[in-house]
Amino acid sequence: MRCRPCLSGGRDGTGDSLTPVAPSRAPLIRYLLLLLLLCPAVCAGQRPSEDLEHRARIGLSQNLADYLLLGTLNAELQYSLHRSWTLQAGARYNNWTWYPRQDIQFESRRQTYFLGARWWPWYTYSGWWAGAKLQYEEYNRGGIVSPETEEGDAVGLGIGAGYAIHISPWLNADFGLYGWGGMTRYVTYACPYCGRRTDAGSKAFLLPDEIRIALQFIF
Hints:
By secondary structure, the protein is mostly beta strands. The chain contains three helices and nine strands. An eight-stranded antiparallel beta barrel has the order 1-2-3-5-6-7-8-9. The longest helix has 20 residues. The relative contact order is 0.14.
């Protein structure tokens, strides 16, 4: 919040005042000091009460963007340890195979589990956040961009950031982006349904992980 007093007044340059004479410097300085003292109090009044901060312990999220990824089911639970820290745990699940036509098949099947933490510079469940998580994923994806299909088990570290907006005392809109990297043991196939192996082994990876457009329920 910016405090900016508005003062007006002036002279015609001859010594005769055309407008009311400006107050002396001493009352003006006292006025500015009073505003400087009041500003922190007013700004502090915009923050939630201590009681609200202590009651907002648990957040349960549903990421709507995951449902757009071939109907991936998901849930995330957060617990507030401190005014600026939450622990999080969650899972995503998709076991669907899609057949747009009889000769076309594509899938992005997976089960994903993660544990992590978020740091909130202001206070938990509001404003900017940065997070990190350990993640395991069993996946089978292919036929979307090319006929080649890959399945495997991946383990790695995810890092992300975002912003949460209060809709009501018990509901947030949570936006963010995550990427992750690590190691995977994999097998690739020539197409989703032929079963012909083309490669297998272990490799490092660095991939986008999650776009968050989530509803978060606060308890």
